[in-house]
Specification:
4 strands, alpha+beta, 6 helices
Length: 154
């Protein structure tokens, strides 16, 4: 149960309760996203991606300290409270598109970051011998795809 809960009731400041159409299970989506274990996994993933600092100036090295100091404020952000079904579906679709978990996406949105993919071409000098026995040098290029975090433009 969430630490912010009072006598077993989910905290009212957090987002809506959502019912699963297939199983009829009621669960609080945001509280699942903001669970300590989920957010720790997301933070680890964000830190391992070595993203650049966001528009708020929080660098990759300061992110953990910032979260510890401002967690209550972040958790109670009004954006999450007013999240409608339509907005939730958009957020879920974005998480699937970016190939990240909802927790990672929540962390990125809170800290004003987005995931981008960049193609990096690495060049390796290579020497071959052709049919005539002549040595030729050429540059072998390999494409590497990287996932980076970047600030969302204001």
């Amino acid at each position: 149960m969430n630490q912010d809960s009072i006598s077993g009731v989910p905290s009212p400041s957090l987002a809506r309760v959502m019912e699963s159409p297939c199983k009829g299970i009621v669960y609080n989506t945001l509280e699942k996203i903001l669970e300590r274990s989920n957010m720790q996994k997301a933070l680890h993933k964000v830190e391992s991606n070595k993203g650049c600092s966001g528009t708020d100036g929080i660098g990759q090295k300061e992110i953990r300290k910032h979260l510890k100091e401002n967690w209550v404020e972040i958790k109670d952000k009004r954006f999450w409270v007013r999240c409608s079904n339509e907005q939730y579906e958009k957020i879920k679709a974005l998480a699937e598109k970016e190939r990240v978990s909802m927790s990672e996406l929540a962390l990125m949105k809170i800290l004003n970051l987005k995931v981008i993919e960049v193609d990096e071409i690495k060049e390796y000098p290579n020497t071959i011998t052709d049919k005539k026995g002549e040595k030729r040098t050429y540059t072998q290029r390999r494409l590497a795809r990287k996932r980076l975090l970047q600030p969302i433009s204001a």
